[in-house]
Design brief:
Bound molecules: iron/sulfur cluster
CATH superfamily: Aldolase class I
Radius of gyration: 18 Å
Shape: globular
Structural class: alpha/beta
Helix content: 40-55%
Number of domains: 1
Strand order of the largest sheet: 6-5-4-3-2-1-7-8-9
Low-confidence stretches: none
Distance between the termini: 7 Å
Number of helices: 13
Mean pLDDT: 92
CATH architecture: Alpha-Beta Barrel
Order of helices and strands: HEHEHEHEHHEHEHHEEEHHHH
Strand content: 5-15%
CATH topology: TIM Barrel
């Protein structure tokens, strides 16, 4: 990992927190194709178009120019593209901290070592012990493959973690899942499925999260755990920093309000810079964002809470996770 990336992230925390320089974070969904069959997602049911390498590189240049400190490459399954290494290299060369989300179903040793040169942290989606994970992801043997992927990326020198999507099927298995995988991971995040299911959080979920937090590998602000029940009780005051603190980009280079609301398209990075796009957002798009019923994801509410933590806590947690 480059010293430049480390400095860039700490600088990003400081500039965002104290000087209100935004955006801090962006997600680039490089493809919506996916080889998982998750029960709570429709992406895998279609084969939408995406940019070629040349244009995807232009998009990454424009994202870096927008001032972000962190870029998450996500999907779909990003590893279904065969140009991830040059894309991540371009982001890293511009000093942006890079993260990669994958289901871990694609296991290629040489690729893992290539990615290790340009990825600061890699997250594999694991939703519980084997039978639960396989059921929720719709792939028999998925857990075992994801576990092999964790080991491979770790041996390649990448910081690896898991993200657990909480549903009514696995909400009481957070601690069990952590205990099962603790020795394989550097960090863990969890988030309720989106759109949320009423029963995807319980008292036990929250207690388990506090207990994992005490062990030091849960990369979630304490407030995120504290407020989770409020979100499901309906008493949580909506937190939305779409197009301010963060934004997302879809496989065609469209800038969207955030990762979950990829239906709110406000411009395209092949045509305009991010600044041009946000300075001319239509009234209709603004209303859609204002009227959005809310979310509770790590890449939205979690980022807000992370930034609001005391700076030492934010920076230390980030550096511990990514470096
Ligand atoms: S891995 Fe992600 S994109 Fe793929 S089907 Fe599951 S939730 Fe959808
Ligand atoms: S509240 Fe809606 S628009 Fe705002 S970040 Fe969440 S999903 Fe996106």
């Amino acid at each position: 990992m480059s010293l430049l990336s480390k400095l860039h992230m700490v600088n990003g925390f400081i500039m965002t927190k104290y000087f209100n320089r935004v955006p801090f974070y962006a997600t680039y969904n490089v493809t919506f194709r996916c080889n998982s069959r998750c029960v709570y997602c429709d992406y895998w049911k279609s084969d939408p178009p995406e940019l070629n390498t040349e244009n995807a590189l232009r998009v990454i240049d424009r994202m870096a120019e927008s001032g972000i400190s962190m870029l998450a490459i996500s999907g779909g399954e990003p590893l279904l593209r065969n140009d991830l290494v040059p894309l991540l290299k371009r982001a890293r060369d511009s000093g942006v901290v890079t993260t990669l989300n994958t289901s871990g179903l694609i296991i290629k040793e040489q690729l893992a070592f290539e990615l290790a040169k340009y990825v600061d942290a890699l997250t594999i989606s694991i939703d519980g012990p084997p039978e639960i994970h396989d059921k929720q992801r719709g792939i028999s043997g998925a857990f075992e493959r994801s576990l092999r992927a964790l080991a491979l990326y770790k041996s390649a020198g990448i910081k690896v973690g898991i993200n657990m999507v909480l549903t009514d099927l696995n909400r009481d298995l957070v601690l069990e899942t952590y205990n099962l995988l603790e020795s394989h991971i550097d960090f863990m995040t969890v988030q309720p499925v989106n759109p949320p299911l009423k029963n995807s959080i319980s008292e036990k979920t929250v207690d388990d999260l506090y207990s994992i937090k005490d062990k030091g590998k849960l990369f979630l602000p304490e407030q995120y755990i504290e407020k989770m029940k409020e979100y499901f009780d309906g008493s949580f005051a909506k937190i939305c920093d779409a197009l301010k603190l963060y934004y997302a980009v879809d496989p065609l280079g469209n800038v969207t309000a955030c990762a979950p609301r990829h239906d709110i398209i406000v411009g395209n990075l092949l045509q305009d810079s991010y600044r041009q796009i946000v300075s001319s957002i239509s009234k209709t798009s603004m209303e859609k964002i204002e009227n959005c019923s809310g979310c509770y994801l790590v890449c939205t509410v979690g980022v807000n809470m992370q930034i609001k933590q005391p700076i030492l806590s934010s920076a230390t947690q980030g550096i511990r996770t990514y470096f």
